Amino acid sequence: MNTVGRQVLRTLAVLVVLQVLTSFVGAWLLGRMTPAVERILVENERSLEAVERMALALAEAKHVSDAPSRFVAALAIAEGNVTEEAEREELHALREGHEAALAGDRGAQERVVGALARLGRINRDAMERSNREAQRLGLAGAWVVALFGVIGLIGSVIAVVRTRRRLVAPLRVLADVVTDHARGGSHRRCPRTEGGELGEVLGNVNELLDRIERAKPKPEALDPRDEALLRLLDAREEATWILDESGSVKAANAAALDALAADPALRERLAEAVAAGAFEGAKVTAVRGGALIERG
Q1: 101 within 8 A of 108, measured Cβ to Cβ
Q2: Contact 78, 54 (CB under 8 A)
Q3: Helix/strand/coil for 245
Q4: Is residue 145 part of a domain?
Q5: What is the DSSP secondary-structure string of 196-225?
Q6: Same-domain check for residues 143 and 272
């Protein structure tokens, strides 16, 4: 695989790994929260329901015949759903005193009611602890997922910047250099700032442009007198033309070119002036078989 391909693959791999890690961490934390929530909704709630049934059966013992059996059934549920060690002592007290309490013994009833109250409080305290644990895990999970999200965002920004600097920017420069050369700017070249295949491409483009430049025909050297005459034309503000012996315009300054563009018939009159040696509103000077025409 080439260097550019490896750069792109590494960038994509980093982003994918960050996303996968974020997903796994979020799933793991949710999995940790599930037992705590389940304990609140199932285990402790079941024990509290059994406490309520026993209290109701105790209150109806004098008037409802099946109250003792309902008490025993609820006690069995509570004994089969022990989630805290402190429950065992209260359940033992209920097992020992429930018969006397259901029979109407005032002292036994007080002991049973106290044991039921403590058993309910033990389960409510356990539920509160489980609730706090679930909230703590939820908050920690939110912060961890947010942290991985921020890391993923930073990684994405770094990846985009690196890709722009090492891939997009050199390609943009390459396109600009080729466009400039197509428009006549033959001196601009690509900077050799990248290694690998992209650096080779930039170098090859530079070499190709150099070859094209060397293959161009070299312009003939100007006669010193012609060069001085051209400089004179550029320095004049008034319209000035240089014509050959056939009357064709060989050189002109900016004002002269504007005049030709504004008056198409002017070119014919200038050709006639070469033969006549005069032009209305201008000075005609013979120059090397042609004429220099200067408007005053």
Answers
A1: yes
A2: yes
A3: coil
A4: yes
A5: HHHHHHHHHHHHHHHHHHHHSPPPPPPPHH
A6: no
Cα of 52 vs its chain's centroid, Å = 57
CA distance 247 to 190: 46
Q: How far apart are the first and last CA of the chain?
A: 73
* Cα 132 from Cα 138, distance rounded (Å): 10
With a threshold of 0.70, does the pTM exceed it?
no
List pLDDT tens digits, range 45-67. 888 889 899 999 888 888 888 88
Read off the pLDDT of residues 208-219 as tens digits, 9 standing for 90 and up.
Answer: 888 887 776 665
C-alpha gyration radius of the chain:
50
Domain range holding 270? 224-295
CA atoms in the 13 A half-sphere facing the CB of 287: 18
3-state secondary structure at position 237: coil
Return all residues near 4 (Cβ < 8 A) that are at least 6 apart. 167, 196, 197, 198
Position 99 pLDDT exceeds 60: yes
